[in-house]
Amino acid sequence: MTPAEQSARSAEICRRAPVIPVLVIDDLAHAAPLARALVAGGLPALEVTLRTPVALDVIRAMAEVEGGIVGAGTLLTPADVKAAKAAGATFGVSPGATDRIIAACEEEGLALLPGAATATEVLTLLERGYTVQKFFPAESSGGAPAVKAIGAPIPQVSFCPTGGVSLKNAKDYLGLSNVLCVGGSWVAPKDRMLAGDWDGITALAREAAALR
Ligand code: 3PG
How many domains does the chain have? Predict the structure, then answer.
């Protein structure tokens, strides 16, 4: 999968809804009801972070949920990329981008949303053909003003800012011409998952889906 094909796929995913939920899931039993709750609320693209022992099984379970587009986040190594693809992830997200991660995604045919936080990182990825990138960590890297400033000289790159984004500041990003969507964990709070409050999570998803 070429970088251009990956970016086209990433753009398509990012345009499905204003928010990509960033999910940290400890209990495999939460996978299917959580995915159903988020999809029902209007957020079809789901990023399952590879930060818990059950993450790959969660991807497998969520991939069965109708209407969901399941990706793997926290891709740190080529082995992560292979495992994510094998589990059924249809896109991948990395906090930064290395040659090895990029090469693995190209080989495996996994659409990568690669992370960048500075103009040089953005340009390096653009040179490789990645026109859709994750701006990470968004708030601590300057927030919406930084994304806007990078867009002045480099308008051909679009972003999914993630990291510190919430209901309060999401609109600051979503109003920028170089932002396709944002990523955030606020739509799937741990306490609601533990309580099995799937309706509450659908309500949070609805609120996020209406941001734009
Ligand atoms: C992450 O990697 O955890 C994401 O950037 C989500 O960040 P958030 O919890 O601040 O939304």
Answer: 1
